């Protein structure tokens, strides 16, 4: 987090990309809530509205329902459930999760994507490879 007096420079044009995290390795297998991706210390300005978007793949060793959560500094602000069939051995099923986030203070925010198996058996993973990566983006949309 910036200290008092630090100058934070962020784009001021709506639609500007603020930060991106790219993951090229599959996550560890999960059944309980696990962190899948982290976008650390993204600069935000109080009162601005941002789009947080994850695009990637999900995989399961058996039929399952997965809950993905987007969090800002540990607080969930968007949830979505994804039903999965047994797609083990593939590069996963394409999925996306998008939400708007309004900055309550100027500074740095850490965004995380977590996953949790809600039902089914077996394990789930966020499927990512060098040729099929997962992305976590932060874009500035507009002032509130």
Keywords:
144 residues; mainly beta; Jelly Rolls; 5-stranded antiparallel beta sheet; 4-stranded antiparallel beta sheet
Task: Write a brief structural summary.
The protein is mostly beta strands. It has no helices and nine strands.
Report the order of strands and helices: EEEEEEEEE
Number of domains: 1
Helix content: under 10%
Highest CATH level, the class: Mainly Beta
The rough form would be described as elongated
Q: Look up the CATH topology.
A: Jelly Rolls
**Would you count the extended β strands for me?**
9
What would you note in describing this structure?
The protein has 144 residues and is mainly β. It has one domain: Jelly Rolls. The protein is built from no helices and 9 strands. The strands form 2 sheets. Strands 1, 3, 6, 8 and 9 form a 5-stranded antiparallel sheet that branches. It has a 4-stranded antiparallel sheet with strand order 2-7-4-5, with no helix packed on it. β4 and β5 form a beta hairpin. The model has no long low-confidence stretch (mean pLDDT 88).
How do the helices and strands line up, and which of them pair or pack?
Layout lengths: L16 E7 L10 E11 L3 E13 L3 E9 L2 E10 L8 E10 L4 E14 L3 E4 L6 E10 L1
Antiparallel strand pairs: 1-9, 2-7, 3-6, 3-8, 3-9, 4-5, 4-7
């Amino acid at each position: 987090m910036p200290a008092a007096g630090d100058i934070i420079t962020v784009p001021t044009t709506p639609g500007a990309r603020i930060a991106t995290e790219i993951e090229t390795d599959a996550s560890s297998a999960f059944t309980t809530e696990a962190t899948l991706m982290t976008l650390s210390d993204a600069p935000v300005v109080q009162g601005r509205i941002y789009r947080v978007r994850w695009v990637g793949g999900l995989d399961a060793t058996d039929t399952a329902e997965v809950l993905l959560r987007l969090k800002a500094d540990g607080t969930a602000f968007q949830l979505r459930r994804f039903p999965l069939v047994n797609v083990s051995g593939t590069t996963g099923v394409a999925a996306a999760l998008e939400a708007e986030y309004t900055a309550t203070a100027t500074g740095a925010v850490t965004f995380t994507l977590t996953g949790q198996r809600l039902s089914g058996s077996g394990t789930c993973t966020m499927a990512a490879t060098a040729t099929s990566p997962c992305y976590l983006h932060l874009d500035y949309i507009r002032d509130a």
